[in-house]
Amino acid sequence: MKPSTSPPKKRLPLWRGIGLILCLLGFAVFLAPVFRHILNIANGGAMAAFVLLALILWQWEGFLRLLRWLWSRWWGKLLLIVSGLGLASLVLLLLVLCGLVISGMRQSPKRDCPTLIVLGCQVRGSSPSLLLYYRIEAAAEYLTEHPDAVAVLSGGQGPGEQISEARCMYQGLVRRGIDPSRLYMEDRSTVTRENLKFSTALMAENGLQGPVVIVSNDFHIYRAMLMAEDQGIDAEALSARSAWYSIPTYVLREALALIKYRVFQSGR
After folding, report:
1. CA-CA distances (angstroms) from residue 235 to 184, 191, 197, 220?
2. What residue ranges define each of the domains in the chain, with the CATH number in brackets?
3. Fewer CB within 10 Å, N side or C side of the chain?
4. What is the mean pLDDT of the chain?
5. Is the separation of the CB atoms in 126 and 162 below 8 Å?
6. H/E/C letters for each residue in the chain?
């Protein structure tokens, strides 16, 4: 009987196996919100990045050959240097911004403020999304504990919404026992910057006093407070909770939103 002449199968190095497992876990973390109808540039981009990284680890020898081939050409060197520096800078920037977003989570007011501004969020038909539900809960708790405080409910009506976000919050707070006379609806805004701008205008029209407490979900608080500061609003923060499975996606999305805000909207 002739001995087998086929080459022995190569075993996957331990470090690559661990890397592939981490890629799978990372992909799963950002995939989980998709099953709750949460898909945006953050978790979509993160899932694509983990798939690409897993392919590189799986085909590591071929990837190294490609790098050596590019490095042997002047334009390849330039491409690798520029893309490498760009990727490293982007990753570092996102890590820093994610850290800032996380630092703003779990805040509560340090002062008793007479007015809440509750920032709007998606309405599904005529019912609050989970994120908006948590904002309503946080606002109701504060208004119950501070019976002299009033609230400005901020958010217009978007596509697929049967009522405005302000109206949805109004109904939710009234159902929780809050007197309707304490609630003011601002139903024109479509983004956070407008939430704050139009809400403070409504406060001025109705003689409502500051400072204000800004209510939003925990991951959104840092950017909301940054915008409030840019608009000269004297504000405290009240963090509403968010679903645990959505936090990585929303923290990354907020980091990207901070870049967009600083590049395109700062000072407006």
Report:
1. 18, 18, 13, 15
2. 14-103 (no CATH), 115-265 (3.40.50.620)
3. N
4. 93
5. yes
6. CCCCCCCCCCCCCHHHHHHHHHHHHHHHHHHHHHHHCCCCHHHHHHHHHHHHHHHHHHCHHHHHHHHHHHHCCHHHHHHHHHHHHHHHHHHHHHHHHHHHHHHCCCCCCCCCCCEEEEECCCEEECEECHHHHHHHHHHHHHHHHCCCCEEEEECCCCCCECCCHHHHHHHHHHHCCCCHHHEEEECCCCCHHHHHHHHHHHHHHHCCCCCEEEEEEHHHHHHHHHHHHHCCCCEEEEEECCCHHHHHHHHHHHHHHHHHHHHHHCCC
Residue type for position 73: R
pTM of the model: 0.89
Amino acid 267: pLDDT: 40
Report how far residue 16's alpha carbon sits from residue 1's, in angstroms, rounded to the nearest whole number: 37
Report the amino acid identity of residue 246: S
In the numeric block, the tokens 């989980």 are attached to 32
pLDDT tens-digit map of 52-70: 999 999 999 999 999 999 9
Report the phi/psi class of residue 210: left, alpha or beta, with left for phi > 0 and alpha for psi in -120 to 50: beta
